[in-house]
Design goal:
By secondary structure, the chain is of the alpha/beta class. The protein contains 9 helices and 22 strands.
Length: about 450
């Protein structure tokens, strides 16, 4: 097989990035926009050792799961991958993506434990509570943009359908003031310009926190802040300085409070969380509560257990489950997050949760060596997974239960393959945290064999 070869390909399953996957002489071929069950006339665009990539020229047989995408930017914008798939079918595909990862990376018998149906999101659109987008001058008007899929090209966006409508409204109003004040937007080609990104976060009470991510310092940003704090919904305004030449770096190290409150408060259940510009918090608040309820139920707490909340962030999960535990100890590498976690603990008057700064991979073995034991471990690691040292510490710990929240089926599967030496997988629950995208969140319950 070589580039520009053309043939009919049957799509058998969905890939982890939402692409369709078919097979030609056992070679996996990835096709953007294709849905399992369809037949596509494809042209090969790239060949590698064990896989190939193709573009669809025509759909020869159309899946009943195919729908027309509602977003006018969908073909260009890289933010969503599966808006062309019926929602109920996409929930099934997300469960299939999880099962495929388990079959590929583990020797687990997936029929030996329960893999539940994907938990749907109450809101399929307008669910994102945070926007952090690059800005660009288009003619005489500054616009927020998304990065075009598989490129560095910025695509101007008027309204993002998966983002809270208040954020879309504020983006437009704020950038109109930016143009009035003649504040330039950052130009990567020349490394010049003032405003680089615009961040807006909104809580369930529709209160907004705004942060201007700047490349250059300019006093007009303070004038902008004074104007923006007067807008409806805005309660807090910050500036952040990002002078990195790397495109993937969104925020710099320096953040300054300019106007209004220092934070906004988000509430999940009975727990309140202080949200700052740099705070990590789940982007779909309603679905986050559903996930935390599943985690709490999986922990099987009876007020007697000591729980380790590994990769705890701002203490979101640890504080949520503390009411049913004897004690919660959280570990997080990021210092700012630990400060926020302890602030959130005080805010909620929770006295049985303590949070420590450090690397979970090294702190857990030290705690065990010092005689600190745990009954349950809750872990919600980054996409890269738990880490070799942390898994080894778990295998040497004899902890009764592990509740593993994952945002990456591939790394979850790889970690489960190692943990299965000593732990039994009881159940896995896929959760649709990000409708219209291919991302799958899961909560996995393991128990000591």
């Amino acid at each position: 097989m070589k580039e520009n070869d053309q043939f009919i390909l049957d799509i058998k399953r969905m890939g982890i990035n939402g692409e369709g996957i078919g097979f030609y002489n056992k070679l996996a071929i990835f096709v953007d926009g294709a849905i399992p069950g369809e037949g596509h006339d494809v042209v090969i665009t790239k060949c590698e050792n064990k896989m190939a990539y193709a573009k669809s020229v025509a759909i020869k047989s159309v899946s009943k799961a195919r729908v027309e995408a509602k977003c006018p930017h969908y073909e260009e914008c890289g933010g969503c991958q599966v808006m062309h798939v019926n929602y109920d079918d996409m929930l099934k595909f997300k469960r299939d993506i999880l099962i495929e990862a388990l079959n590929r990376y583990t020797r687990l018998e997936t029929k030996a434990f329960e893999i539940k149906a994907t938990i749907p999101s109450e809101n399929q659109f307008g669910y994102r509570n945070k926007s952090l987008l690059p800005v660009k001058k288009i003619g005489q008007t500054t616009k927020v943009c998304m990065m075009k899929s598989n490129s560095n090209m910025l695509v101007p966006i008027n309204d993002c359908l998966i983002t809270n409508p208040i954020i879309n409204e504020l983006n437009t109003k704020i950038l109109a003031i930016v143009d009035e004040l003649n504040i330039s937007s950052y130009m990567p080609k020349f490394n010049r310009g003032i405003l680089r990104y615009l961040m807006i976060r909104v809580n369930e009470k529709n209160e907004a926190l705004v942060c201007f991510v700047c490349y250059e310092r300019n006093n007009r940003i303070k004038e902008l802040a004074k104007r923006v704090i007067e807008l409806e919904h805005v309660k807090s305004v910050y500036e952040n300085f990002n002078t990195s030449k790397k495109q993937g770096v969104l925020l710099g190290d320096e953040t300054n409070h300019l106007e209004g409150s220092e934070y906004i408060i988000e509430t999940l259940g009975n727990i309140k969380y202080q949200i700052y510009p740099t705070t990590f918090f789940q982007l779909n608040s309603k679905q986050a509560k559903n996930m935390y309820d599943i985690i709490l139920k999986s922990c099987k707490l009876s007020l007697k257990e000591r729980v380790l909340d590994a990769y705890c962030g701002v203490g979101a999960i640890g504080l949520y489950i503390a009411k049913m535990a004897k004690e919660v100890i959280g570990i997080e590498y990021n210092k700012e997050s630990i400060v926020a976690a302890n602030e959130n603990s005080k805010l909620n008057k929770i006295k049985n949760a303590k949070f420590y700064q450090g690397d979970a991979q090294s702190l857990l073995p030290k705690m065990i060596k010092d005689g600190i034991t745990f009954d349950v471990v809750v872990c919600d690691p980054p996409r890269t997974g738990l880490g070799k040292d942390f898994i080894e510490a778990l295998l040497n710990s004899n902890i009764k239960r592990i509740v593993y929240a994952s945002c990456n089926p591939a790394t979850l599967a790889k970690d489960l393959e190692i943990l299965s030496e000593k732990y039994k997988v009881n159940s896995i629950t896929p959760i649709d945290m990000f409708p219209q995208t291919a991302h799958v969140e899961t909560v996995c319950l393991l128990s000591l064999k």
